[in-house]
Design goal:
single chain, alpha+beta, Ribosomal Protein S5, domain 2, Alpha-Beta Plaits, 2 domains, 4-stranded antiparallel sheet, 16 helices, 15 strands, globular, binds adenosine-5'-triphosphate, binds (3R)-3-hydroxy-3-methyl-5-(phosphonooxy)pentanoic acid, kinase, nucleotide-binding, Phosphomevalonate_kinase, lipid metabolism, EC 2.7.4.2
Length: 512
């Protein structure tokens, strides 16, 4: 068998900007995660070639009963048709179906039906898998008698099977559907030669804003909205495509003409083209500072994001003046956090030695004590270190300010954005030596927490702030805290993978 086209895209954590990012006047600070979704696409082997319609087989081997067969007609009277073959055991997957349908329609517009017919004549075999972090591993850990720690999680097989149907899986909030859609449509665009092979290259560590990547973004946003039946802010798809960023949303009007599920002869490219200036989203560079580490934990209580969003937006509408003051306050804190964290990266480049020393020094101390050492506070010999420490103090103060104002938002709208149980957990974590700050990601609720911790170089593992945080999590009784393995993705956004370079991927794709 030839090598499949393999594409991956990262999950997301909205560190700051929940609710605000729904409004184009504000933006969100989004970190893309090292946990990724992978789509492998290959041409079906010759014997499976069928006379008649083109076949596309899709499987998600981490789940029970998760394989789907689609028949494709590229030249029907109403344009491209992709129909699922339904039997007594099959389930539906609207996300996969719409991704195939809309991507093939776009491909037929850009490549001609004849060319596409040739490329697809043997049919396609597609495998979709997500890193373990996207789905709660509690049951898997319990079954193996393992405690919920990072060490235990790294012992689980990659792309672990969940033992359940997709509809029943406990998701962790990393944005599985956005990462899935992004990897699937990007993989298809590449495999069908709709976009050039180098579309997902990186330049100097940042994702290239190539025309191919922008087209994949517009298509993924569109398909994701259609599959979800609503237009959210799209920060999750943008992070899956471009990586960590400061995100400002697009105007939903751009895709409005395409939002009907029945698309008889509707042409997609004029709307989805990167040159269409109605796509007015903004992606500005963002990354976490060096020698810090993002830590995430799932708190296993769960909340219903759409109902939180509905109530918050209703309060905002009914209390426009107060809401504007609150939104503006939170926004200036959010912008401040992003600037401060970027500023720390700049300091580390300018003065790596002072940066390394300062991180090492404060990583053993609680953040409230960071400037207490009189040598650091007043001694001019330590002024380089002081600049770094002040940057981290600023980040701590800003993230605490964001938490306080998000709690106020929750109280006004009467929704548990940072409920008291989460407040207690976050306070316990933030008081650990070497923790910079934290909060509830995205819409908040009883879903998850994020923390930014110092990660000094050459430090024995047990003395790292992350180990201290883990100890707090493992003994915490107020909530059931389960860590996720993810850190920030260094590779930005969508990327092309080599099958054998991703541990466990060949086995799961080949079904062994
Ligand atoms: N591994 C997978 N293979 C195929 N489809 C999947 C897979 N994982 C998720 N999906 C699709 O995504 C849908 C879930 O989308 P939904 O928008 O509810 O989740 P989400 O908000 O992205 O969740 P989270 O942010 O918690 O990961 C599933 O119903 C399924 O159609
Ligand atoms: C509330 C909102 O701003 C963020 C939701 O984020 P999350 O899915 O909870 O990570 C909604 C959105 O941006 O689409």
């Amino acid at each position: 068998m030839s090598s499949p086209t393999v594409i991956s895209s990262p999950g997301k954590v909205l560190l700051a900007g929940g609710y605000l990012v729904l409004d184009p006047a504000y933006s969100g600070v989004v970190v893309s995660t090292s946990s990724r979704f992978y789509t492998a696409i290959e041409t079906l082997p010759q014997p499976a070639r069928a006379e008649g319609p083109i076949q596309i087989r899709v499987k998600s081997p981490q789940f029970v009963n998760a394989s789907w067969l689609y028949l494709v007609d590229l030249a029907g009277p109403y344009g491209v048709r992709v129909e699922p073959v339904v039997d007594s055991t099959s389930t539906k997957n609207k996300f996969v179906h719409l991704a195939l349908q809309r991507t093939l329609t776009l491909a037929a517009e850009l490549k001609s039906v004849g060319t596409l017919q040739n490329t697809l004549s043997y049919g396609l075999d597609i495998t979709i898998v997500g890193d373990n972090d996207f789905y709660s591993q509690r049951a898997q850990l319990t079954a193996r008698n393992l405690s919920p720690t990072l060490g235990s999680l790294s012992k689980l097989p990659p792309f672990n099977t969940t033992g359940v149907h997709i509809a029943d899986v406990h998701k962790t909030g990393l944005g599985s559907s956005a990462a899935l859609i992004t990897s699937l449509v990007s993989g298809l665009l590449l495999h069908l030669n709709v976009i050039p092979a180098d579309s997902f290259a990186t330049e100097g560590g940042t994702a290239s804003a190539s025309e191919g990547r922008k087209l994949a973004h517009n298509l993924a946003q569109y398909v994701h909205c259609l599959a979800q039946g609503k237009v959210g802010s799209g920060f999750d798809v943008s992070a899956a495509v471009f990586g960590s960023q400061l995100y400002t949303r697009f105007d939903p009007a751009v895709i409005e003409p395409l939002m009907s599920e029945n698309l008889a002869n509707q042409v997609l490219y004029p709307i989805l083209a990167p040159s269409n200036s109605a796509w007015d989203y903004r992606v500005e560079p963002f990354k976490l500072p060096p020698q810090t580490r993002l830590m995430l934990a799932d708190v296993d209580a769960g909340s219903d994001t759409p109902s939180l969003v509905g109530k918050v937006l209703k309060w905002r509408q009914a209390n426009a003046v107060n809401a504007k003051t609150l939104w503006d306050t939170i926004d200036s804190l959010n912008q401040g956090l992003s600037k401060t964290l970027l500023g720390l990266s700049a300091i580390s480049e300018k003065n790596p030695t002072a940066y390394r020393k300062a991180v090492k020094y404060i990583s053993t101390i609680q953040s409230v004590q960071w400037l207490a050492n009189p040598n650091i506070a007043v001694n001019s010999d330590h002024s380089d270190l002081k600049e770094v420490i002040e940057g981290f103090i600023e980040a701590r103060n800003l993230s605490e300010g964001i938490r306080a104002n998000m709690r106020a938002m929750g109280q006004h709208a009467d929704v548990p954005i940072e409920p008291p149980e989460q407040t207690a957990l976050l306070d316990a974590c933030i008081s650990v030596a070497g923790v910079v700050g934290g909060g509830v990601p995205g819409a908040g609720g009883y879903d998850a927490i994020w923390l930014l911790v110092l990660d000094p170089v050459n430090c024995p593992p047990e003395e790292l702030p992350s180990s201290r945080v883990e100890r707090v999590w493992s003994t915490y009784t107020g909530l059931d805290v389960s860590p996720l393995l993810a850190s920030e993705s260094i590779a930005k956004g969508v990327r092309v993978e080599v099958l054998d370079d991703v541990p466990g991927l060949r086995d799961i794709v080949r079904g062994s």
